[in-house]
Amino acid sequence: MLALILGLVLFLGIHSVRVFAEDWRTARRAAMGENAWKGMYSVVSAVGLGLIIWGYGLARQAPVVLWDTPTWTRHFAALLTLLSFVLLVAAYVPRNALKARLQHPMILGVKVWALSHLLANNTLADLLLFGGFLVWAILCFRSARRREPLATAQAPSAAATSLTVAIGVGAWAVFAMWGHAALIGIRPFVAVTPTS
């Protein structure tokens, strides 16, 4: 569990500098130079992400169950995750209505992803991982909205919005049917048989 916690501290910590220490971040970037700052940021992020993956994998070998999860939560989580994929894609497709309306769809996508996984999972490692990302996303979204008030962007395009939804749904389907099992080892749509 220590590796998971350390990974979360590193990964979410470096991604929270702008939320909690904007002046320090600006000073460090100026002192180090843009490329050195980005290099350090990338290394800390990669180490943190690696520790999260490793630590979560270790924690799953001896899970500490905190509560019972009804079967319906898995189906609801799948629906929420579909929404999170569309929001993530919306961050990158220009002139889509979701980005124009929400301003920070990627952070909202992380928030929805974390919430969906908190609903469907029930161990201490899940609470730390997905709870940590949910708290980070809430704080980060509030900070981003304060820092960058709602801007008037180009008028959204119906074609761009349709493309955003189509790519998000397609990516979600591929990940839900194949990618989740390949990368995480769990098939979201296959019933879990309890072990005695």
TrEMBL record:
Coarse class of the protein's main subcellular location: membrane
InterPro entries listed in its UniProt record: NnrU_dom
Name of the protein this chain belongs to: NnrU family protein
Compartment(s) where it occurs, according to its Swiss-Prot or TrEMBL record: Membrane
Residue ranges crossing the lipid bilayer per the database entry: 40-59, 71-93, 113-141, 162-186
Keywords of the record: Membrane, Transmembrane, Transmembrane helix
Upper lineage: Bacteria, Pseudomonadati, Pseudomonadota, Betaproteobacteria, Burkholderiales
Species per Swiss-Prot/TrEMBL record: Ideonella paludis
Membrane topology: Multi-pass membrane protein
Domain NnrU intervals: 4-188
Superkingdom classification of source: Bacteria
Pfam families associated with the record: NnrU (PF07298)
